[in-house]
Design goal:
single chain, Rossmann fold, binds zinc ion, three-stranded parallel sheet
Length: 304
């Protein structure tokens, strides 16, 4: 059956975790996702990925929004908070349960460390609990059955990437032992709910993408286009993050830092742009943004 081509409106998003202030590493993802959405005349949404409640820092979400606003980012609609979306995640979980794709797992971290094989992306879950049918009253996580099918996609920056989920990852957790929904489930449910068509984010999430595509398929959600950006690392090779001591970018807009983020993303702003006004920088960036110019490198050193 042939269908008429549907032109999906572009809907992008920026989805920080409120674990601390915005730093240079997160600014890169904000800038790239924003400019790409603007250039495609699409919408740009902001979502607080606060599903892992144990990591949230009080006040960080407001702090991030304040900083984004000060830098001149304009988002569409209301900011979404994952902590308010538990009902939606539970409903998605039920759909997976109905398809017999979910089982209870009681393995401890230690058991897995001692018995599971370390793969390229972490410990590969060996399926210990797949046929054990643990009773519900026993403390457990919920895992999603994976398949041997390769899950490949063509990343707009990094090119073709694929995994065999069963072999490379194993059946993965969608609800944790402590009752919190896993990031992988939450992000997929939210992207579908917000009709996100394009995701521009850091390379560290590239290896989560096949799991997310698989979840989209299990839940009969539309497919999404992906572009994974190089991530900023420090001299020790660690990703810039609050944990590795990355400095916050401050609440006042730092034009030079914004221009630095454009350079990091392979754009070629003129030398005098770092001394221009904030609106001038944005104007230049909107007129000159090229996703094609972003380096196809997983990591780039950033000197703080
Ligand atoms: Zn288990």
């Amino acid at each position: 059956m042939s269908e008429n081509p549907i032109t999906t409106p572009y809907r992008g998003r920026f989805a920080p975790s409120p674990t601390g202030p915005l730093h240079f590493g997160s600014l890169i993802a904000a800038v790239a996702s924003y400019l790409e959405a603007q250039q495609q005349q699409g919408a740009w949404l902001v979502r607080m990925e606060d599903v892992d409640e144990l990591r949230n820092v009080s006040g960080a979400a407001d702090d991030i929004l304040f900083t984004l606003d000060a830098y001149g980012f304009e988002w569409d609609g209301e900011v979404m908070y994952q902590t308010r979306r538990k009902q939606a995640y539970a409903e998605a979980m039920d759909k997976l349960v109905d398809q017999h794709l979910v089982y209870r797992c009681t393995c401890s971290r230690r058991e897995l460390r001692e018995n599971a094989i370390m793969g390229d992306y972490g410990l590969i879950y060996p399926g210990f609990c797949e046929h054990k049918d643990h009773p519900a009253h026993k403390e457990h996580a919920l895992r999603l059955r994976t398949s041997q099918q390769p899950h490949e996609f063509n990343d707009q920056i990094m090119g073709l990437f694929g995994q065999n989920l069963k072999q490379d990852i194993g059946d993965f957790i969608i609800r944790r032992r402590d009752g919190l929904f896993a990031y992988q489930l939450a992000v997929v449910v939210d992207d579908a709910f917000q009709n996100i068509s394009h995701i521009v984010r850091g390379f560290d999430l590239l290896d989560s993408t096949p799991r997310q595509i698989y979840l989209q398929q299990c839940l009969a959600y539309p497919a999404i286009e992906y572009a994974h950006l190089p991530i900023a690392i420090n001299a020790k090779g660690d990703k810039l993050s609050k944990q590795t001591g990355a400095r916050g970018i401050g609440k006042k807009p730092d034009v030079a830092m914004l221009v630095d983020s454009l350079k990091f993303l392979g754009q070629q702003p003129p030398d005098n742009l770092a001394r221009a006004s904030l609106p001038t920088v944005w104007q230049w960036a909107l007129e000159n943004w090229k996703l094609d110019a972003v380096p196809r490198q997983p990591k780039i050193l950033h000197r703080d």
